[in-house]
Amino acid sequence: MMQKYQLAQLDKCLRVAKRVSGVPFGGGHVVLIGDFLQLPPVGGEPMYKVPSRKTKFSHNELAGYQLWRAVKDVFILKECVRFQKDPEWGCGCHKARLGIWTPEFISIVTSRVITSESPLEESMRNTVSTFVTPNNSTRLSINNLFVPTAAKLLPEGEYPVRVVSNFKGRLKALHRSEVRMIMQLLDTKFGRLAPYLDLIIGMPIQVTQNVRAAKIVANIILGRLEAIVYHPGTTFQLVHDSTAGVTVKVPSILPPEVIVRVLRGPPPLAWQGARMQEFSRCFSIPAL
């Protein structure tokens, strides 16, 4: 979520870059994109809230609020590519975001709830199927279940690689119980960055940023972990996670990057007769 002071910082940077100090954003065109119907995070402050009503506020907050109030044109997009194959669901979600829950949409939501007794259709067992969880703890539990399950399929002597976030040495002064508590926190407590990641070569990876959109490496694209790049001289220690029930390999030095392979899709029709494998592209992304 963008905050008011960040809008003020953007304004300042653009004025300097374009060398136009007397015009907001240096005279450049700024498009703010977002879901403005979403509630702000717990403890967060929306753009429209007047900062001067607070006991303490900064100059940047006030400047950002004034910039926000200066926005005059708003375009509401009524189409979403994610709902093209399920327009009925998309229409219901759109109304629900406006607070309109129709009986028909409630019936659709209820019919799609999966319980332990619900038989899964073959199409839902597909690895590309998506589903919604009621909370982040359930989502995290499902993600964590993947590692011990996949670890059992690894060859003997191979283990998942656990990459711990770089806390800049701030964990060294804490007790073991405090470190354990931090490592068990949800990734939502760290700005969607998990305190650690268990990596297995071949595991699915979802790109959450537009790394190279022109090369089809964009947000929501799925790929597979091809390799982990280590610094020279990196050593490893085997650690058994009793909570997850899995033994992991922890590198002594944080890996600088990983290589992810993203499928480009089927080959062109003109090459159908040639012996061509499915095209794919490898790219590297920085590690934690």
UniProtKB/TrEMBL annotation:
GO terms for biological process: DNA recombination; DNA repair; telomere maintenance. Residues 1-86 form the DNA helicase Pif1-like DEAD-box helicase domain. The keyword Ubl conjugation does not apply. It is an enzyme of class 5 (isomerase). Pfam families: PIF1. Its cofactor is Mg(2+). One of its GO terms (molecular function) is ATP hydrolysis activity. InterPro entries: DNA_helicase_pif1-like_DEAD. Coiled coil: none annotated. The keyword Transport does not apply. It comes from the Eukaryota. Keywords: ATP-binding, DNA damage, DNA recombination, DNA repair, Helicase, Hydrolase, Nucleotide-binding. It catalyses: ATP + H2O = ADP + phosphate + H(+). Its EC number is 5.6.2.3. Belongs to the helicase family. This is ATP-dependent DNA helicase. It comes from Phytophthora megakarya.
